[in-house]
Amino acid sequence: xxxxxxxxxxxxxxxxxxxxxxxxxxxxxxxxxxxxxxxxxxxxxxxxxxxxxxxxxxxxxxxxxxxxxxxxxxxxxxxxxxxxxxxxxxxxxxxxxxxxxxxxxxxxxxxxxxxxxxxxxxxxxxxxxxxxxxxxxxxxxxxxxxxxxxxxxxxxxxxxxxxxxxxxxxxxxxxxxxxxxxxxxxxxxxxxxxxxxxxxxxxxxxxxxxxxxxxxxxxxxxxxxxxxxxxxxxxxxxxxxxxxxxxxxxxxxxxxxxxxxxxxxxxxxxxxxxxxxxxxxxxxxxxxxxxxxxxxxxxxxxxxxxxxxxxxxxxxxxxxxxxxxxxxxxxxxxxxxxxxxxxxxxxxxxxxxxxxxxxxxxxxxxxxxxxxxxxxxxxxxxxxxxxxxxxxxxxxxxxxxxxxxxxxxxxxxxxxxxxxxxxxxxxxxxxxxxxxxxxxxxxxxxxxxxxxxxxxxxxxxxxxx
Length: 465
What we know:
9 helices; elongated; Helix Hairpins; 3 domains; 5-stranded mixed beta sheet; Heat Shock Protein 90
């Protein structure tokens, strides 16, 4: 009970205080460590910049000294002028290297003076190397002291971090524990099928947002579950009718008691054919929905005339349009080349046109208009029919899976046709929207002329919405 004041109402302030403390500690220790490290780095850099050239110059000095001695010995033995010249040359080189070493390394000045007075000896070179090693050892000791200092700083930082972390745990424990337990319990209830479960939207803003997101997710799951149940009920009803018609027709044809006339047999076969077509229609719808929802992708775009693809869709649905005396017109340039998936586009426009015919007035016109502006990167396509307006609040939902609006309740269908259209368009990286009013409904599709590197949806077989 001692942490009652640290419940969610004060959680944000405490978290802010802890954050400020951690930042202040980090800045303070960082500045200290940076100052110490910078001084050491500058000293080490100067030492390294001097050490390598010095090593090379001492090596050159040793080589020049050795070569001078050898030339001197040979000159003393042979009194050859060439050896005398070599002796003088190496003597000049030796003097120059001594000057260069003195300029780089002031500590060498004592050895340089001794060499100038009594001549350079091997002992001088050895002493210089020992002095250089001694200075490096001193620098190494300094580095170790700096490292020990940094280690002490890091130890202090670690201890303070542990203290502040413990403070943080104590402050946040009860402020987070209960909301997380509620979230766990609510998740378990959702998992067990209690989709009506909701969380209380209280506490600090972050936890409140999590509760809101959880409740939105639960509401969405509940909606989808209801849509699934509605879909199953619809499909059961839709399949029962053609199945009954097919069963009865086949029973009549197979009956030995009832001898049907040739005309009756023809009508019976026609009814069976219509029922089987209806079943095929619904099965293809379900297969297409499965393909679009599973996101099967393949690189099957090619540059073709999209006007020809849409004309193919128009030719396929024309007999259905003629039954309602509806004319379908394609208003487009003869050639509109772009990159697209042929079967996917044909299927999408078959679905769109069937929808336009289904909800269009008899003896009306369905127009398909293609606009291909040269500067624009997209091809714009519009399908317009004349019929009852779609309510404004239903327009954003008509492309949802299994959605059927108020106007569609009297029509056969499962609410997947326009959803498939949306998936096809999205597979082409395009956009689809709907407008309805004044007795006309327009479906607008925008498709890019050139596809980026991505797959196209794989659509095999027919199927309409």
